[in-house]
Amino acid sequence: MDHGFVFYLDPIIFNLGPLHLRYYGLIFASMLYIGFLIWRWQMLRGDYSIDLANRFLLWGVIAVIVGARLGHCLFYEPKFYLSHPAEILYFWKGGLASHGATIGLFVALLLFAFKYHMRSLEVLDRFSMSAAVGAAAVRLGNFFNSEIVGRVTDGTWGVKFLRYDCHHLHLCQVFSSPNPEANAKWAQLVEQTPLRHPSQLYEFSLGMFVLLSLFLIDRWAGKEKRPLGLLAGSFLVIYFTGRFFVEFFKEYQTGLVQEHWLTMGQYLSIIPFAFGLGLVIWSLVKRRPTDENKLEPVYVPPPEDKKKAKPAVSSSKKGKKSKPAKKSGNKKKKKSKR
Question: pLDDT for 175-219, tens place per residue?
């Protein structure tokens, strides 16, 4: 009998005491690095300093983790997490939503633009390609974790996610042995596990397609001459259109399923798609080049300049009035009248 593609890779690469190196963590770290390189390339091409570009790295990491975690907890399992709020902090156990990450990054980018006196749409444009990398990488990590799986299919391309379906089949004890295939229950697990759409790989491909599309749009629109807001709007339109249709192949994640035709992911994709479509239309109508009427950003000194900066006044000297400095040079004496 043809079992299709059987996937049961251990998500943990190796253990180092209490620490575990997971494929998801490795992919996530690589995504942050590659996304940051693209963001820095966009900033440097726009004549911004590398120090200003580096400032957003910490902002972006916090926005992705906090936004993705809160998005999953509030959009998909609000009853559980509102009754167990401490569980929200355990993000390493899984449960990250791309819609939440999008909202978190959107807020962080707006605050970054405000703090450093940059135009909001320009900042969103310059980050769009990095966002596409992030969307693709997270789904690849989900595949290695055997989570966010697809619906059951009879297609030959289907995948049997043994580590996912073993839970409701009550056969996860198979993976407690060093060699799962030698376990007596192995054949039963493989036989009873259904073929599923590899929806994680569908979304990974979607993210790569969005990245390629944005790169081509950027070149077609004249790079730094491109209309302001075009890349950000294009990202929202292309990604969330694809996300809407991929949801038809993903396993249901909430109880919204039986009562509604659309899933929670599809409902959450409508608003960013509509916003992106309006932004693309506005951008093409106004055609304001990115490199025109740029604001003067706040100066961010490089690390060497910070070391040379004078130390702050100590607290013991606060409140004392400083004496006026003596004028240098000898005053010319007035000639006395004879």
Answer: 988 889 988 899 999 999 999 999 999 999 999 999 999 999 999
Looking at residue 156, its pLDDT comes to 86
- Do the Cβ atoms of 196 and 249 come closer than 8 Å? no
Query: HSE on the CB side for 106, CA within 13 Å?
Result: 14
Tell me the per-residue pLDDT of 33-72, one tens digit each, with 9 for 90 and over: 999 999 999 999 999 999 999 999 889 889 988 888 888 8
What is the SS3 assignment for the chain? Answer: CCCCEEECCCCEEEEECCEEEEHHHHHHHHHHHHHHHHHHHHHHHCCCCHHHHHHHHHHHHHHHHHHHHHHHHHHCCHHHHHHCHHHHHCHHHCCCCHHHHHHHHHHHHHHHHHHCCCCHHHHHHHHHHHHHHHHHHHHHHHHHCCCCCECECCCCCCEEEHHHHHHHHCCHHHHHCCCHHHCCCHHHHHHHCCCECCHHHHHHHHHHHHHHHHHHHHHHCCHHHCECCHHHHHHHHHHHHHHHHHHHHECCCCCCCCCCCCCHHHHHHHHHHHHHHHHHHHHHHHCCECCCCCCCCCCCCCHHHHHHCCCCCCHHHCCCCCCCCCCCCCCCCCCCCC
Calpha distance 200→138 (Å, rounded): 9
Per the CB < 8 A criterion, the answer to whether 69 and 96 are in contact is yes
**Dist. CA 10–CA 247, nearest whole Å:** 26
CA distance 99 to 240: 10
Burial of 91 (0-12, 13-18, 19+ CB in 10 A): middle
Q: Identify the segments of the chain with pLDDT beneath 50.
A: 1, 309-322, 326, 328-338
Length of the chain: 338
Q: Say what the pTM is.
A: 0.81
Q: Are 232 and 123 in contact (CB under 8 A)?
A: no
Cβ proximity of 97 and 68 under 8 Å: yes
Structure tokens at 287: 């055609």
